[in-house]
Amino acid sequence: MDNEPAQTKDEGFLSRMALNDNKAGMEGLDRDKINNIIMESSKGSKFYENELKKDQQVNQRIEKMMLQKANITQAQLKKAQAQVEKMTLALERSRDLSRVIVHVDMDAFYAAVEMRDCAELKTKPMAVGSMSMLSTSNYLARKYGVRAAMPGFIAKKLCSDLVIVPPNFDKYRAVSDEIREIFADYDPHFLPMSLDEAYLDFTEHLEQRQTWPESLRTHRYSSKSITTVIIINLPGIAPNMMLAKVCSDKNKPNGQYRLPPTREAVMDFIQDLPVRKICGIGKVSEKMLNALEITKCSHLGQQMALLSLLFSETACQNFMEVSLGLGSTRISRHEERKSMSIERTFKELSDAEEQFSLCRELCKDLAEDMKKEGLKGKTVSLKLKNVNFEVKTRAQTLQCAVAAEEEIFAVAKDLLKTEIDNESPHPLKLRLMGVRMSAFVSSDDKAPTQKSILGFLKLQLHVSSVNTQDEGSALNKTGGSVSQVLENKRAAPAGDHPSTSGCEARPQILICPVCSSKVETTDLNVFNRHIDLCLNVASTNQKKSESESVYDEKKCLQECKELNKRKERSEAEEEQPFGSKESSRVCPRGGQHGGSIQKVFLTQSDSKPTTSQKCQGKLSDLVCPVCHLTQETDDLAVFNRHVDLCLNQEVLHELKGQTTFSQNPSVVKNSKNIGKSQ
DNA sequence: GCGGATCAC
DNA sequence: TATGGTGATCCGC
């Protein structure tokens, strides 16, 4: 029973507190000495005591798991094994090695920026952060064991010469923008993970590159800031995101790693990879797996049957994919945000009055942030951390969505009061308080910007013939900037409709931005399909009545309805729902760099007679709606890519406070080479 | 829906 | 003197 696991308890705890030499630049330093200093600096503190407590909880989880394991029968294991083999086969069949996924992150990003701006720092061990917490450190500091997420005062004990520079996020954001501009040229749909990290899908870029003249292939970025390029870490290249992430970490700081897209190479690569290297497997998961003597990814594969009996389905699914070297092959922008929060750490705060006023302040700030994004939420959560580092959250969900300071505070205040009362007659001794909003519904504030999408769409649909009437619905106002448009999801429930206030239980009614009819569904995919159909109809209409100056909405509406009916009927028979791959369009961030708009253009252009695409090599007159330049291409995919690039550039420049953009994306210049006519 | 926990950055 | 802030997700109620 006292079957002590491979690790002793002390060693286990060390893994929680001690130096994480995972990071680059940590090779060949005196681990024991460093860990000693870290431990000595921490011992006896409230923080340390709490960490100890948490570690013991993990140990209990492990014990429980080991007990479960001991009770597993051979029959169970055998059955599980069969199941696992079946799933493995299915997963193996789904393996896709055709994509070129790149993961890039900046090496010691904040530190690199500070060193760029202050030459003196280049020769000194330095870190960005405060005495309480460091964000990152440069390589000189890493030699002493100074690393991110370490409190500055401990770092100082490890390296008394350490220079700690306070963070300057505006500056990092500016550099990040420059870098993202470069990313966008390679993949307009790149996925930023933070200021210093992103995934890119290079597949299409590489295909296009084949057709470029030599001059273009060599220096593309002569006009761009070199200063930022210096700090880009060379990337990790692999057939999927999971692998790319590991690869980018491989040869830090000064090398890239490319994993060949073959099954053999992938499996070889995975074989001895420590499970902790996998994104998503953190300290605790590592410890639990280690208790089962699983330390390398190959062990995961060998122990899948056992794991499937001890872990949840989602966890197992993930383990299995990892063990096979599988991961996402398509990078998609994150969906809309699900929560927004604010929290603050402070010196012990025990006075109830002060706690309430702090709470109000947090609510005020949160309400401001909510307003900026036009959000309203139904759930208010209060987070408290006492001086012993114990964290509690308390939440309440309302009938109606709220956003204003007073409304949020009314709830948060009650939650706080309950906690204070529960502790009475003792005071709550807090070191952190936070307020979070979630369970968002669309808010009225969103309506104006959403309408700008309509304006944008309609502008495209009408091309030159702009309709001036229209029941004051702002349909023709194109005042919204491109970035505004891009910030918004396409299939947003109509904000000014009463049913979206969040106070009614009946299904949401969504208003089609094209035909303005109500679509009664909760499924945004269904709604998007409807919009697609409407756009088709609208563009057909436009084609038919090019000489007319008035857009016939009624006709559109009617045709929409008919088409939708037809479509629904045919869909009932087919397996593949139309447009199912476009589900990313309901995601606002997905639209940020043109994803959703792109489809609009495609749909519109699709309705052009196919003859103009294929016959006689005649070039159609595709005019980019962003840069307004005629694009000499008849390849819609190429045209769309161009628009994407333009949108990206515009957004980036807007972010930088510029209104014009300096260059037209080069892609289309070469489009003739990659047209279908070859 | 709630609350604790884990994870990433 | 001193161990962060934000967002997401999962699991077990």
How many separate helices? 28
> Which percent bin holds the helix content?
40-55%
Q: What structural class should be given to the helix and strand makeup?
A: alpha+beta
Number of β-strand runs: 16
Largest sheet: 5 strands, mixed
Across the major sheet, the strand order is 5-6-1-7-8
Percentage of residues in DSSP E strands:
5-15%
Radius of gyration: 28 Å
* Low-pLDDT sequence parts: 1-5, 222-226, 443-502, 504-510, 512-516, 519-620, 648-678
Average predicted confidence as pLDDT? 73
Global shape:
globular
Distance between the termini: 73 Å
The structural domain count equals: 5
Structural notes for this entry:
This is DNA polymerase kappa. Residues 509-539 form the UBZ4-type domain. Its cofactor is Mn(2+); Mg(2+). It is a single chain. This protein has 678 residues and is an alpha+beta fold. It has 5 domains: 1-71; 101-246, MutS, DNA mismatch repair protein, domain I (3-Layer(aba) Sandwich); 339-442, 2-Layer Sandwich (Dna Ligase, domain 1), CATH 3.30.1490.100; 443-596, no CATH class; 608-678, no CATH class. It is 47% helix and 13% strand. The chain contains 28 helices and 16 strands. Strands 5-6-1-7-8 form a 5-stranded mixed sheet. A 4-stranded antiparallel sheet has the order 9-12-10-11, with helices on one face. A 3-stranded mixed sheet has the order 3-2-4. A hairpin with a 4-residue loop joins β2 (126-129) and β3. α22 (524-544) crosses α25 (595-606). The radius of gyration is 28 Å and the shape is globular. The N and C termini lie far apart (73 Å). It binds a DNA duplex (9 and 13 nucleotides) through α3, α7, α14, β9 and β11.
